[in-house]
User: Fold these one by one.
Assistant:
Number 1:
Amino acid sequence: MSGVSSKEETVQEAAADFLASWDRQGLTLHRILQLHNLLMTPFNAHLQKRYRISVNEFRTLMTLGRMEPAAAHEIADVTGLSTMTVSRAVSALESHGWLNVRRNEKNRRSNVLTLSAEGRALFDKMLPVSAQVAAYLFADMPGAEMDAFARHVDALIDRLKQVDETGRSAFLEATRPQDED
């Protein structure tokens, strides 16, 4: 007996059929999304409920902790989150008392964000978990492979951030559904 039930074999066969139906680009995109979801597992298991923080709040807090002071649009640019998503996260973090917001005297249309003492303490608690995720993920990757991987990721990010001649996202324009007005 193999130890695998017929139900598990059916699920495995369905998964194999699903993956076989993709072309190389579609399969690679699927695998990148799968990688993202798997990378979020430690956050979901160890941090989200414990600290009552959403993933976007976490990403905003962790980014601000490394680059403060910063404006919300700078955090959006670094994380890839939309400015609206960062704005919502900033509001939530401020309501928790983890973030200070003050008007930017040089640019009155934006605010300057910094971590409060409580926010800095939370950042310091969460940073080791992030470091453990990175250490686990890349432990067996030689330096040259790590450098090549980083170059590929940077190239993909650069491509997704390109704008067309009108300043619109080239990615969003290229992926607009044909039936959209």
Number 2:
Amino acid sequence: MIIAVKNDFIMPILVLSLICLVMTGAMALTHIATEPVIDDAAARRAEEVRRRIIPQADGFEELDVDGLPDSIKEAYRSTNGAGYIFIVLTNGYGGDLKIICGVDPDGNVIHCTTLEQHETKGLGSRITEEPFEQQFDGVDAGLAKISAITGATISSRAYIHAVEDALVAFILMRER
């Protein structure tokens, strides 16, 4: 009787543990097999976005520069001197905003676009629309003329501050 109770108790635990172990191993193998493919696809997408921001660039080199604003997560220089690309991560109303911003060698914004956002749909998410993003094209450090979106001032200001940080990063990099 005691042996039967132990079997009824221990056997399901062993079977479930074995299932968990096999599934964990299968997931680990899947991760190992797909990680390089996913990383390559992400790198290609990132290169495509950089080329859309600065189409005249013939390539980009990633820069590792200390002293940039904390919101600057990545910085690139075009290999032919057409400009710089900054990936900026800032906090909007709905969470993180990830913005890519291109700056020409004279310190003017080429173009900025949103890579990732979690803003309120239909309101704060309007920062991703062309009328808002196009305001930054050709602008230098004087961002005072940029119009915020009515009802979405937190999202708009976060975007504006992200572009300001990209311009500050450009100035710091140019001085070096």
Number 3:
Amino acid sequence: MAIVAFNDELAFHGYSYFLTTKGSGIMCTVVQRDKSKYINRFFEKTKRFFVEKFNLNLLITREIGGVGSFSMKNVKKGPTLYAGEAAGLQDFLWGFGTRFAITSGYLAAQSIINNWDYREIIETHFGKRLKAGVVNRYLWEQVLSKNDYSILINFAKLQNKLHSLYNYNLFQRVLYPIAFSKLRIKYPKLKS
């Protein structure tokens, strides 16, 4: 089962999710950086919500945390090649980076085996997708500023149907400079 909740009480301008299979699962709350000091409060509300809504019995729990990174800032440092979120390869809209991690790990191995320029390979493979993610995030935050989650849910449905939202389409190329400059104010470590 995979469930996502868009609710400012559970995750301000973010989302909470619960994934489970064969009796094990993961429950997370994702919030904007400016609300991260309240993450424990948001997570407790998220946990109560999912436990009550789905009558969960949490037997063994372990708390973990992390910080996402959304720009290719740490692709290579000296001889060390970074992959996945450590390299800043993560979808700026939804945050999930598993597919990026697997692909970038493979590309790191290939660059070592074939003596390729890893930074160049990563830029070629992920550059447009990351720029599309910046535009998608900008549009998401425009919707969130209106606190109308029905629009957000329709946007999410639309995104699943339109592959071009991650292909850096013409609309995104035109909007990217504006989206980047606006988001750079809020996320100063964001790199183009």
Number 4:
Amino acid sequence: MKTKLFAIFLCASLLAMCARAKTILPDACGDDSVKFDVKTEQGQPAPAPLPDGKAQIVFIESYVKNMPNIGGAPIVRYGMDGTWVGANKGDSYFTLTIDPGEHHLCASLQTILGRMKKNSVGMTSFTAEAGKTYYYQFTITDKSTLTTGATGPGVTNGGGGISEDISFDFAAVTEDTGKYRIKAGKLATWKNEK
């Protein structure tokens, strides 16, 4: 009887710890339980012209290829005004036609690794004008060093784990940079995982 009671107590304690470990995301994001399965395609046509009275936003992911392996190219989810609007994977992009006005954006690395998940969120806001295109890029950078003194993107802490010095940046980029990233990148399409 004591063994069963101990097992029940242990399971309840573990569940409580998992519930507390849930990531709290900014209001601009969506529900953290939403996950995406992303496919990318090279050589897609440029985004279509904007409909009258609308604006466009292009979400770009910049993936440092020599980062520690975190299950292949990372998936980044993008939220706007409290709802996930899509995702991309690796060096990819997608576009979204939006209404003019103020918008609150969020980008979040889709991961189950605790220390990466809690620090991998970027936020910004902007005011969209009809007829304009805005480019936002989520960049993953590793600023750590090995004991040999090597530095740069993708250098791990030497233990084979994820470096504490990995940073995530989500910011507007120039039109020239955005157009180049579309030309050099892959178009991302996604569906929600069940």
